[in-house]
Structures are given as C-alpha cells and as structure tokens.
Amino acid sequence: MSSEHRRLPQPSPFRQESYSPGELSGECGKEWQSMKINTNEFVEVAQRELTNKRTRTLLDMISSVVDNLRDSAMSSFPDPSAALEYGRAIRAESLARLPELLDQFEKNAVAHGASVFWARTADEANQFVLDLARKRNIKYVTKGKSMVTEEIGLNDALAADGIDVFEADLGEFIAQLLKRPPFHIVGPAINVPVDEISALFLKKGLIERATQDPVELGAAARRYLRQKFQHLEMGITGVNMAVAETGAIINVENEGNIRFSKSSPKTQVSFMTIEKVVPTMRDAMHLLRLLCRNCTAQKISAYVSMDSGPKKPGEIDGPEELFIVILDNGRSAIYANENLREALRCIRCGACMYGCPIYMKIGGYPYGWAYSGPMGQVVNPLLLGLDRTQHLYRACTLCGKCKSICPGGIDHPKLFLLYRSMDVEGDVQLKGQSRPWLEQKAMNILSCGARRAWHWNAGVKGARPVVNLHARGNVISQMPLLGGWFRCRDLPAVGRKTFRERMKETGQY
Amino acid sequence: MTNPREDIFSRLNSARGTELPQRPFVPPLSEISHDRDRMIRAFTDNLTAQTAVVHHVADFAAAAEKLAEVVAAENIKSVVVSSDAVIRKLDLPEWGRKHNLTVLQAEDCTGREHFKNMVFAEADAAITGADFAIAESGTLCLIHDKDQPRLISLAPIMHIALVPLERLFPVYESAIDRIFGDPHNVPSHVTFITGPSMTADIQGVPFKGMHGPKKLTVILIG
Ligand code: SF4
C-alpha cells in the first residue's frame, strides 16, 4: 500500500484545535476540531467517556431500546435469517466481481450522461471538487451526510479555499457547528444535550431565545438551511449504493437534505468509494430492506432517491451536470489481500455499533475518526495503518455479536485477530509494529518453556514466589515490565502450591 | 503520471480472484401473494404508521372533492401541482378556480429560479400523482421528469399524492422492473417516499418536517 492515500487533510484556518479527550460531551463554547485523526487517543478518550455521566446515561438508555427495535424490524421479514444470508451473498458476490461491476457501472452511468471521475487518493478527490467549484464560481455547497467526505476531509479542503460547506443533515449540522466529530453514524449529535444545542443556536443567531424543545430547535435549523437549499448552485452527497446493471446511484435518508442537494442545484457531485457497487437493481432493493431495518429499525427510510444521469432536456429542476467521484483511497490495495477484502463488504448500516458491548460503554468519540464501533475497528486499521490504530483492534471482547447481525457478512472478530497477528509479525503493507525486543524474548522463553513438561514445571515453581512479591492483599494489579498487560486486568495472587502438588499431597495422584 | 482509473483497475484486476460464491435462493416476500384488499390494507397501515393520512375514494370525481376537503381543512391558499397523467385527469386549474385556490404549475415558470421561488416561497402545499405505490412498506414511487419536477414533492410543507389503485403493487421489485426494464430509457430521477420528512437527531426526539414536508396525505382512487 502506498502511503499517499493516507495523507491527512490539511488543517483549515477554522479548525485549529483538537478536542481534548473526555471533554467531548461537555459544555458548550469550546470549539473542537472535527476530523483530525485521533485514533491513537483511544484509551484516554475512552477512560474519560466512561466517567462522563451524560454519555453513560444516553448509551444505557439506547442499549435497552435499540436492540429490541432492530430485532422486531428484522422480524418483519417472513424469514429473517434467509434475508440476512441473501444480503451477505450479494455483498460477497459484489466484491468477487468488483472490477467487472465497476466497469459496467461506469459505462451505464456515462451512457445516461453522468461524468465519472476516478480518484486514487483523498487529495485527488478534493482537488477535483475544488477545481470544479472554482470553475463554476461556487460560493457555498450543501452536503448530505456522507462518511466518505469525512474520510477525505472535504469540508476542510473546501473551507481552506474560501468555499462554505453546510452540513445539511441535522445531526451533522450540529456536530459541524460544535466542531466536533460525529458520535454515531446514525445520530451524529444524539448525545449533545438540548441546552447545549440551544446555546449554540442562540450564539449563531438561529434562534432568538433559549429553548429546551428539540422540535423548536429542529425548526430553526430548517429555516436556516432552507435558504441555502433554495439558492444552492452545487450540492454534494455520498452514495449508498451504485448499481452496475443500470448505472444508477441510490441515496437513503429520512430528512430530505440529500434530495434537496440533488434537486435544487445545477451541479451535483456524488462521492462513492469503489466497494459501493452492487450487481442489479433487485440486489439493491434487497440490501435497501436490510439497511433500513438495521440502521433505524424502519422498513424503509422516508426517502430513497435514485439518479441516472443529470436532468433531461425540458426538466425544470435537477442538476444540469452530474459528477460521480469514485474514490479508491487505499481500498484497491486492501482488495489485493483476500483475507482483508472482506472488510469492504460493509454497507454502513451501523447495526454493529449498537450491538457492541464496547461501543455501548464508551460511545463514538474514542475511535477518533469518521468510522467508529466494530465498523471502525474493521475499517480504520486498513485505511490508517495498524500502527495508528493499535487500541482499536485490541479493544474487543471477541463476543461476536457484531458478526452475528452484520448484513454485509463481515466476521469482525476474525479480522481483529488477523490484524493483531499482522501487527505482531510487523506486516509491511499495513505498518504492523511487531513487538518490543523484550516482549519478543519473553514470548520465546514462554514457548520454549511450554514445549516440555519438566521445563514448564520448573518454570512455574521458580516464578511463583517472584510473581507473588507483587501481590497486594490477594490481588496482583501491577508488575514491572508488564504494565501494559495489567492496565485493564487484575490477577489473583498465585497459590503457594500448584494443583498437582496438592493432589500429590492428598495421595490421590 | 498514470491515469487514476487505469491505476485502480490494474490493482483490482491483479488481485487474486475468489471463487464466485453461490447465492442462496431469493428469500420469499409474503406481500407477493396479497390480493388487492390486502395490499390496500398493508399500504395504508405501513404509511399511516409514519403519520401520513390515507384516504380511499371511488373515482376521480370523488378524489377532486376529497382534495378540496383536505385543502380546506389545512387552510391552504395556494398549491403547486405536477402535470403528470394522473394529475391531468383532474383538471386542477379549473378545480382551483372553483375552490378559490391559486394553482401553480412549473410550466408557467420562466426557469429554474422562478420555479424554485414558487415551490419554496409561494406554495402552501403540493399535489402530485404517484407512478407506483408499494404495499410492503407503504411507499410512494415518483418518477421525475418534465411533468413531475423533483422539488414539488419536497419543498412545500404539505404533500398530497394521488394514487390510482391500478398503480399499487406488492413489492419494490414490481416498480423497479417496470422503471428500469428498458436500460436505454430510464428516468433521470426516481424517488421512494414513505411518510413526511423526519429526523430524531436531537436527543432522539422525533420531529416531522425536518427539511421537506411536515404532512403527507395520500388519496387512493378506485
Ligand atoms: S460492519 Fe456490518 S453491521 Fe457494521 S455497519 Fe458495516 S454492514 Fe453494518
């Protein structure tokens, strides 16, 4: 994997500071940087978020509700497990046929009049939009919620060039005003308290007096963004699915901001990554069913919109030109590795996050980037490198819940174990770190010891008193050289004699 | 510098192919076996669950009356209407004169800006015809073209859709196969609409009318 795709977005003049861990769900007034990559602060942020009462209350509340909702949504399928299996098969086939499907998609999209632009890196994609915006003399754009534009830092790139970007999804809009990363893929600002949003809207002049009413706040955002939509010249959106068979791109949403961004302006730019393509419209319909049930426990979202090219002559709204940016950003290199390829099956439904016992304790901030939860743990190490995401793929209980509900058919625990082993082995492509000299030696000694019974017995005998030197009361919670291991674990003190010794003493051995 | 497209494809193509996985059987959808009445019930139940209001009338004459009733109850003064086949049958300009309503149409606009101003600022409600309706989730399917502009069903605060019952189908595939069946002649834009615009982004509190319509009313005809 070349290093170019990992280049970080340039810091913009508007987003200087990085957020301080743990204060993320804190009071208003502090302005956080939104998309600096902070995956290496996982432990610190997680620790602070664990003691953050608001985060805790919210997540506890959500976890008691969401799983049931999702379950009952899935049970509206006549045969839920068959539906899940079929979705997984579609995603597996989509990847197996990826080059062929991308080619077919492009041909069909172009035949309908869309312009397809291929981008290897975040920079290439950003540069394309910048040039386009300059040529069209664009002052501002609205953006529908899209993870890929977060991944490439598009907002910062445009802002640095003096083009205002308005996030148009309410949650993203709030997160953007707070300069804070999204807390969750489905509800990016679901954790931000009403009074904080009220204070923020007051400060920005969206409302005239403070209010505790979420509906009033939503209406204020509606008024504000409506002006933007009405005079919009260029709209930017992501893509949920791209259909090879027809060249259509599909967006799924509840609010209508994506529909506005695709209907009002003369220029539409839709961003997708290479793995978004699916074979047929019928496949897309099936995935749509799974996506909505898993994402928001709806049978279908309020709006699903499909574009095949720009508007036709005589049509009064809709884009005169439709650009589809197909982004690689490291994925073709991931694709080359058959074992890692599976991670590209994700359809971004968010189910795995709500299912994850880790996410449900710490929320989205510790993951430190656009993708959080098991999805982020699977994707971030591949996109950012194993070295910067150590804590992510290690923070997993391997309970397997994510895998069991994933409509993409991703085996998350298997991938985490793979990342761990690739890291230990110092994989070059993914920037594995291998282990410190001391740890390697310790492992060598351990494996040598474990090979012969008498080695083992002698070792255990010798080690016991040494280990117990560090016991406090009956608990060992710290030991020199093993600080990392004990960071989140305690051991009971070791018994004076081994089980076998005691068996011998009782004469039963 | 090499071409990005070629670069990406050469990497993808040089990757080792996995065997094409076998697909299981397409899972059955129970709606396919629904009769007409069951479809109507499923459509209505699913859509009203999203706070939309569904009326069922016998014919187009009754639809025009129902429409006037709805518009009066909501105290609407001006409507923007599309001019697709369903709507044309109603002769809404004449209907508007009778009920003292301003009826706005895209064809009277000088261009995009004029039209946008109409849908954003002038119209209290929108009336569209649905190209398909889908029972499995209570979904309206609108094909957008010069007779059915996109923003009509989106910008005004209320959306009223008319659905002749012969356009009601059990599942998405029924509509999709018809719309995309001829690959050389597909519409530029198709939307599925299931209830009004909504969000729950602030503290999980549901809020209708986030960006698009706050109210959706559907009149089934036939
Ligand atoms: S990994 Fe699976 S469950 Fe998680 S977001 Fe992606 S598709 Fe959904």
TrEMBL record, chain A:
<dbReference type="GO" id="GO:0006089">
    <property type="term" value="P:lactate metabolic process"/>
</dbReference>
<dbReference type="InterPro" id="IPR009051">
    <property type="entry name" value="Helical_ferredxn"/>
</dbReference>
<dbReference type="InterPro" id="IPR003741">
    <property type="entry name" value="LUD_dom"/>
</dbReference>
<dbReference type="InterPro" id="IPR004452">
    <property type="entry name" value="LutB/LldF"/>
</dbReference>
<dbReference type="InterPro" id="IPR037171">
    <property type="entry name" value="NagB/RpiA_transferase-like"/>
</dbReference>
<keyword id="KW-0479">Metal-binding</keyword>
<feature type="region of interest" description="Disordered">
    <location>
        <begin position="1"/>
        <end position="27"/>
    </location>
</feature>
<keyword id="KW-0813">Transport</keyword>
<keyword id="KW-0408">Iron</keyword>
<dbReference type="InterPro" id="IPR017896">
    <property type="entry name" value="4Fe4S_Fe-S-bd"/>
</dbReference>
<keyword id="KW-0004">4Fe-4S</keyword>
<dbReference type="GO" id="GO:0051539">
    <property type="term" value="F:4 iron, 4 sulfur cluster binding"/>
</dbReference>
<dbReference type="GO" id="GO:0046872">
    <property type="term" value="F:metal ion binding"/>
</dbReference>
<feature type="domain" description="4Fe-4S ferredoxin-type">
    <location>
        <begin position="387"/>
        <end position="415"/>
    </location>
</feature>
<dbReference type="Pfam" id="PF11870">
    <property type="entry name" value="LutB_C"/>
</dbReference>
<protein>
    <submittedName>
        <fullName>Lactate utilization protein</fullName>
    </submittedName>
</protein>
<keyword id="KW-0249">Electron transport</keyword>
<dbReference type="Pfam" id="PF02589">
    <property type="entry name" value="LUD_dom"/>
</dbReference>
<dbReference type="InterPro" id="IPR024185">
    <property type="entry name" value="FTHF_cligase-like_sf"/>
</dbReference>
<dbReference type="InterPro" id="IPR024569">
    <property type="entry name" value="LutB_C"/>
</dbReference>
<dbReference type="InterPro" id="IPR017900">
    <property type="entry name" value="4Fe4S_Fe_S_CS"/>
</dbReference>
<dbReference type="Pfam" id="PF13183">
    <property type="entry name" value="Fer4_8"/>
</dbReference>
TrEMBL record, chain B:
<dbReference type="InterPro" id="IPR024185">
    <property type="entry name" value="FTHF_cligase-like_sf"/>
</dbReference>
<dbReference type="InterPro" id="IPR003741">
    <property type="entry name" value="LUD_dom"/>
</dbReference>
<dbReference type="InterPro" id="IPR037171">
    <property type="entry name" value="NagB/RpiA_transferase-like"/>
</dbReference>
<protein>
    <recommendedName>
        <fullName>LUD domain-containing protein</fullName>
    </recommendedName>
</protein>
<feature type="domain" description="LUD">
    <location>
        <begin position="41"/>
        <end position="221"/>
    </location>
</feature>
<dbReference type="Pfam" id="PF02589">
    <property type="entry name" value="LUD_dom"/>
</dbReference>
